[in-house]
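Tutorial handout. Part one gives the primary structure; part two gives the three-dimensional structure as tokens.
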Amino acid sequence: ARMKTFFRSRYLSGGVLFFFLFFLSADIVPQGDQGKLSFAELLDQGRKLYAEKDYENAIIRLLQARPLAGTDAEKLDLYSTLSHVYFDFDERETARNYLRKMLELAPEKAIDEKTVSSGYRKLFQEAKRASEEESPQIVGMRFRKELKKRKRLNRIELIGAIVLFVGTVVVLKMIGKKKKIKVEPDFDTRVMKIEWVTVPAGEFQMGDNFGDGDPSERPVHTVYLDKYEISKFEITYEQYDLFCQESKRATMANPQETVRGSRPVLVNLWNDASDFCSWLSEKTGKKIHLSTEAQWEKAARGTDQRRYPWGDMEPNCGLTNFNNCASGTQPVGSYPAGASPYGMMDMAGNAKEWCMDVFDPQYYSKSPRENPSPSSPIYSTGGIPGYAYTYYSFVIRGGDYKSNFMDIRTTKRSGISQYSNGIGFRVCKE
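Part two.
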């Protein structure tokens, strides 16, 4: 009778919960860039922009804060805020994904139903149901509640419950261990087949030294970059499909590309490219991200100020896929004669490429000399000082198979909304 009373007690229930949380407490901290603005500052700015219904700028600030989120509490705040912003911006699927990320960290997370819309409440409940189907913590808590509901356990039932509980703990502990060893440092090269090219540390002249480009390509200025690695080829459909399969995302369907395979993937959003980098960082334990604008240009032209990756010679259909030389994009690496000084392929034509930077036409006149990056201050021509800025487009480089000879120059830069589709990308590793 005493044994039954003990197992009905709240102390045993608390002990069960403690052991489940102990065995399941494993988290992989994603890699991220350390910028001049802190996580708290970027999060606060994103919330203020959201309050003013400036959703696009709010999303940009919050995405810049994402790599800096270190603790679970910071991630919860960020995921919750992103879910609200994307919901109000009518991006329901993305909002649901961030709600699921939030519930993975805190399965019993609740919302204040008095302060949110009925649509958001419905989306939250859908995400919660999906999370409960997958979360080992929820499975464990359900088991504990089931034990508490039994008011009359005979001796055989009690022994069976103990055996079942111990077995569940062992199984979930094994699952937890598998999660801990899920990080595979060679996954990028062994499975994804990414070929990395090392660009050595040093200076180069960035900008249009020929004087035939747009004002945004000048002034020419000296930039020093630390050593980094960049993917030799653009990320392909094969590689992106594997990311979708591993992360349980819908496979990218782009009507502009009926042939997939080893052709460069054309994503629908800048976020899609950024999410790929975050996932690969978690998978490998490495710092992988979209190339910064400076990293892209140095890899494309080297240190001798080339007009095109192969040199100053005018482009032709044997050097690159441009000006409709071919019908649509071609498999990556199809034009080896057009390689850059470091052996980079397809950095002119074939597919445009996202960079990490927010586009600012005047940035070259105030760019830092060493390692300019997206975390450098964003300058504004208007709006609220400190966090509002005029230019919220992201930089694209390289031109595509339809571009003319001017638009595939190594110094050509332009900006496009993060919601634009049909843009490829390559990745960097530091």
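Part three, for discussion. The mean pLDDT is 81. Residues 155-180 form the longest helix (26 residues).
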